[in-house]
Write a structure and sequence with these properties.
By secondary structure, the protein is of the alpha/beta class. The chain is built from seven helices and ten strands. The two termini are 25 Å apart.
């Protein structure tokens, strides 16, 4: 059974080489939306998440709302095991697909085909499963013979197309997204939207961070609002 359970999750970012004058603290607080503090060594730190407690169970499509610096992206990265909590814990069950960085783990000197295996490994997919899916990934990407060339020959749009094709090729129990993805030209975007809709419908859990209440209302059945690293609202939609 898929689940995500955060218990007292707190994340502090250390700020190095910054003086402790008050105007600098005020500026940092204004930019980040976080709370300025000091650790035991008197180094400045930003508290991006502050004692987050949340339980997400199968069938829940969670929308994360909040201003820039409220902690949405940090919470997603903790769920994706990109960041470890300073305090507290995050427990999960089920295959997690993170769509936060589509090109994470890809190597510019390796070919497109080689990067399918590299990116697949980052997603926790076994080589045998990647081999079974590689032709579907190649076809969906539409990159043709470019897949035999190193990524340094790709445009930024081609890189994102490849990353998206790999990241969405495998079934997932839990999907993490920071805004609804927009990738490629109009034709590819249509394909991408169809795949995302299918993937999120089949997933047991979706966590989507967005600035758009309308998007969250149309996709999610539960909304969590964050302010300065804390949950201020948690309610059902519809």
């Amino acid at each position: 059974m898929a689940y995500l359970i955060a218990e007292g999750v707190t994340v502090d970012y250390p700020i190095l080489d910054v003086g402790r004058r008050s105007f600098k603290k005020d500026a940092l607080s204004w930019v980040t939306g976080g709370r300025i503090g000091e650790n035991a060594k008197h180094h400045l730190s930003i508290r991006a998440l502050d004692g987050i407690n949340v339980e997400i169970r199968p069938g829940e499509k969670i929308g994360l709302l909040g201003h820039n610096g409220s902690g949405k992206s940090t919470l997603l990265k903790v769920m994706a095991n990109v960041y470890w909590p300073t305090l507290g814990s995050l427990r999960s069950s089920g295959r997690i697909t993170s769509l936060l960085d589509l090109t994470l783990g890809m190597e510019v000197e390796a070919t497109g085909y080689e990067n399918i295996f590299l990116r697949g490994a980052i997603l926790g997919v076994k080589p045998g499963e990647i081999k079974q899916t590689i032709n579907d990934i190649a076809e969906f990407s539409g990159l043709g013979d470019y897949l035999r060339l190193p990524l340094r020959t790709y445009s930024s749009g081609m890189l994102v197309r490849l990353g998206f094709s790999i990241s969405t090729a495998f079934p997932a129990d839990i999907i993490l997204m920071d805004e609804w993805l927009g990738v490629g030209d109009a034709q590819f975007q249509e394909q991408a939207n169809a795949r995302l809709n299918e993937m999120t419908s089949n997933a047991s859990i979706l966590v989507l961070a967005s600035h758009s209440p309308d998007l969250i209302n149309s996709i999610c059945n539960r909304c969590i609002r964050l302010e300065h690293g804390k949950i201020t609202e948690d309610f059902l939609i519809g």
